[in-house]
Amino acid sequence: MVPRIRQNSKWGFVCGRISVLEARLVSMDFYATLLAQEHLDDLIPHLQDTFLREYLGPGSPWEDFSALTDRCFFELAHSLREDCPDPTPVDLFLLNGDYMNLKNALVGFTSFPFRTTWLSSEKLAAIAGGDNNLLPEIVQEAGVALLRESMDATALDAALDGAYLRHLLRLAREFGNPTIEECVRERVLSRAVGVVWRAVRLQAGLRNHQQYFLPLEDFTPVVTDLMASADVRAWTGILSGPVGDLFEKALEFPEDEQVSQFELMCANRLTCSARDGVYQTAGPERVFSFLVALYAEMQNVKLVVCGRLNRVDLDLLRRRLRVCYG
């Protein structure tokens, strides 16, 4: 049954744009065709059917393909942001680029690959030059300035990961849309589980995460319990709900595939959950839904092309494709 979603006329213009853009989303059959091409150069004509068409000129370098897909996603998202009466549904996707820019600045790099929304290029350049006073409050609270001075890269990563997830929770809560907030909350919890799980797998120790990754609002007790249990299989008694169900399913895979399968299943669930937004004529859910689908498409195209470049087994690439609704 088609869900009943409240319409909001203020979002009519941007949703009108999206109704046109949605027609360009590709189906799962597209990736089967892409994977069936014998030569890399044979991929180009098929990629002309995607949003990458405007980015694929003669002699487009394959080695920059990952950056090219990122640029495509972020530039289209920024374009939609300008037409939104409230930028929050788009900022939930752009924030990842802001934090990657910030990480570059904190380690002293002067190039910032993503167009800024939260931190201006001038502020990023000043931070790269050593000005910690310009660090946003949510990052200062994580102790990033001191970690930068100590050159503890692992702790800095943990602090930035935690700040990013707290920032997502705050944006979604303040926006006040129940559908979007539910999707974001599930995304944050699954991302936190993945971060802790990878740390356990790498046997890197969780001291930095215990000290700098938390708190995560009301998810703090759950994540704290995960960190306290060295036996990952015991997490089935800690995690509940959809994330817990997907975690249990991931444990059925070989150990070296469990984390990646968990993250893939969580990404697919987000895509399916957000899909209800396509039924909305005008409203923020339609924007959020489209960006979820667009992000999945860009990740799939990147997976196929970069996988082919690196001679990754085709069956493995097929198994790692995200669901889409083009």
Write the layout of secondary structure elements.
Blueprint: H1 12-21, H2 28-36, H3 43-47, H4 65-81, H5 88-106, H6 121-128, H7 137-140, H8 144-150, H9 153-175, H10 178-201, H11 207-213, H12 220-228, H13 241-250, H14 258-274, H15 284-309, H16 314-319
Fold and architecture overview:
- The protein is mostly helical and 326 residues long.
- Helices cover 62% and strands 0% of the residues.
- It contains 16 helices and no strands.
- The chain is globular.
- The relative contact order is 0.14.
- The mean pLDDT is 92.
Q: Which features would summarize this protein structure in a list?
A:
326 residues, mainly alpha, 62% helix
Strand content: under 5%
- Gyration radius, in Å: 20 Å
The tally of strands reads 0
Major sheet: size, sense and barrel closure?
none
Quaternary form: single chain
Give the topology string: H per helix, E per strand. HHHHHHHHHHHHHHHH
* Class from secondary-structure proportions: mainly alpha
Q: Report the end-to-end length measured between terminal Cα atoms.
A: 20 Å
Number of helices: 16
Q: Low-confidence parts, pLDDT < 50 over ≥5 residues?
A: none
How much helicity do the residues have? Answer: 55-70%
Shape: globular
Roughly what is the average pLDDT, rounded to an integer?
A: 92
